[in-house]
Design a protein that fits this description.
Elements (H helix, E strand, L loop, with lengths): L1 H12 L9 E7 L18 H8 L2 E3 L2 E2 L5 H10 L3 H4 L13 H4 L9 H7 L3 E6 L21 E2 L50 H14 L7 E7 L10 H5 L25 H9 L3 H27 L2 H4 L2 E7 L4 E2 L5 E2 L5 H4 E2 L1 E4 L9 E2 L3 E2 L3 H8 L14 H5 L9 E5 L8 E5 L3 E5 L5 E5 L17 H8 L17 H9 L1
Parallel strand pairs: 1-6, 1-7, 2-12, 3-13, 4-5, 4-6
Antiparallel strand pairs: 2-11, 3-10, 7-11, 8-9, 14-15, 15-16, 16-17
The chain binds calcium ion (CA) (2 copies).
């Protein structure tokens, strides 16, 4: 026995064998819609690296954000709590740090995804836009610096310093009318090439940082690497070579119908579209959006290359890529997001899990981005926190067509309504109930652009009842910042 213990002591001093936990590469993209080639494949779009990712992952082709705005969508992904419980349905500005913990009582002590992985032995690092922030709102960020081992740059100002602006021609000099949305002078709602190499642009620098993190990954410590890419968010400003891929004369507008809103809810943003059409900017903005998509596709390729070139990560890394919501380029006379149609809520979602995912497969089983949190927990064999509303997608990673038994749910509160609105999806149909009581029903198999509102079609009465059951009856009212929040006091002090 004594001899046995002597033999055992040196063994106990040897570090534990290298972990079998998979690493995680977590890629968030801002405002990327379904134009990419593995989804709708908009005519002429060039996204070879999304195709490459689709070949090596499961493509959740019917995935929806939890809310069609940056802040609410991102908080839902990072906490796993759906807006219908947190009450966070909209963007809120002027924060420095995780103000959402004060906005929603339920989130006060919620464990952020990266923190949860840290709690289970991971080194969790982040860079770029994971929580809400904007290029033009320096030091306005809802990131939680405490949730990371390390964050690139200033975690409370993660992207603004990295984006140069081009020289802009004032609208009046360019012969454009007054009233460009988001203020006329800054051209934040606009497209223009940058006269710079990629190396001097924000997302490129974030990817440079991520590649360094990959190289430094240590044996025995699993890595949770979160990379937040800001394009194709406005302003559509990327180096000239990305614009060159899409000569203006060959740019295709998205499918659309002039009378589309006659049977639909009014989104309250048609003045954006009116300005675009009046000033003949539609093709130009589509060019800028497509150029920005190809720029971010290139950055995705650099991340995938980096992973393949790092032996410690190559065959042992889960990849999840998502966008915070969809995007309109004039469909339904809408621009950006802030609506509940498929064009606004459908997002790219790709998941690769080594030895688990049926790579190259695509599924229309409905998914909500709150499903990411429990999915990653199951893949890493760590518990799912009680706060989580989502349901693991691991069964669909193994058998992509396996029925989920759960509908996708996306919620939002429109500005002129005092109750939240909800959109529910199954594999084929979508039902929307707005805060003012208006309802829409679409058959995406027959009508993928949601032109025909079928809510009064007697043949679909049962479908309506089935999907309407997915609208929560007790959805949380919209959250506001309490007066006693230190963030509120800071805002008052700034006024
Ligand atoms: Ca966004
Ligand atoms: Ca319509």
């Amino acid at each position: 026995m004594y001899l046995f213990l002597i033999l055992l002591v040196p063994l106990l001093l040897v570090p534990l064998p290298a972990t079998s936990k998979p690493h995680v590469l977590f890629i968030a993209i801002d405002d990327l819609n379904d134009y990419i080639s593995p989804l709708d494949n908009h005519p002429g779009v060039q996204t070879p690296h999304f195709e490459r990712l689709a070949r090596t992952s499961v493509n959740f082709a019917n995935a929806h954000c939890a809310a069609p705005v940056c802040h609410a969508s991102r908080v839902a992904v990072m906490t796993g709590v759906h807006p219908t419980r947190s009450g966070i349905y909209r963007n809120m500005f002027g924060a420095r740090g995780p103000r959402w913990r004060h906005e929603s009582k339920l989130l006060e002590k919620a464990v952020v995804l990266s923190q949860h992985f840290r709690d289970h032995g991971y080194r969790a690092v982040g860079g770029g836009k994971i929580f809400h922030t904007l290029q033009w709102t320096p030091h306005d960020s809802q990131n939680d610096p405490e949730a990371w081992d390390d964050y690139r740059g200033d975690p409370n100002n993660p992207i603004a310093p990295d984006w140069p602006r081009p020289r802009l021609v004032p609208d009046e000099k360019a012969g454009l009318t007054k009233g460009r949305p988001l203020g006329g002078h800054s051209h934040l709602f606009g497209a223009a090439p940058l006269n710079l190499p990629d190396e001097q642009t924000g997302d490129h620098m974030v990817v440079d940082w991520a590649l360094e993190q990959m190289k430094e990954a240590k044996k025995g410590t699993p890595l949770f690497l979160a990379v937040g890419l800001f394009r194709p968010h406005i302003p559509w400003e990327v180096p000239q070579r990305w614009f060159d891929l899409y000569p203006l004369a060959g740019v295709n507008l998205p499918p659309h119908r002039e009378d589309d809103l006659n049977d639909a809810h009014h989104h309250g943003r048609t003045h954006w579209h009116k300005w675009v059409v009046e000033n003949k900017q539609w093709e130009k903005f589509m060019q800028g959006y497509l150029a920005s998509i190809s720029y971010v596709d290139h950055q995705l390729g650099r991340l995938l290359d980096g992973l393949e070139a790092t032996p410690a990560l190559k065959n042992n890394t889960i990849i999840v890529l998502w966008s915070d919501h969809g995007f309109h380029i004039g469909e339904k006379a809408n621009w950006e997001k802030f609506a509940l149609w498929d064009q606004t809520t459908r997002v790219p979602l790709f998941i690769h899990a080594p030895g688990v995912s049926r790579d190259g497969a695509e599924t229309r089983q409905p998914a909500t981005l709150t499903d990411i949190y429990p999915t990653l927990c199951e893949l890493a064999a760590i518990p799912v926190p009680e706060q989580c509303d989502g349901l693991s997608l691991v069964p669909q990673l193994k058998s992509p067509e396996r029925k989920r038994g759960r509908l996708a749910l996306c919620s939002f509160q429109f500005w002129n309504e005092n109750r939240p609105s909800h959109a529910v999806s199954d594999e084929r149909y979508r039902f929307i109930r707005y805060g003012n009581g208006f309802e829409e029903l679409y058959d995406l198999k027959e009508d993928p652009h949601e032109y025909e509102n079928l809510i009064d079609d007697p043949g679909l009465a049962a479908v309506k009842i089935r999907l309407a059951a997915g609208v929560p009856e007790d959805a949380a009212p919209i959250a506001t910042l309490p007066k006693d929040s230190p963030h509120h006091r800071a805002n008052q002090a700034r006024k």
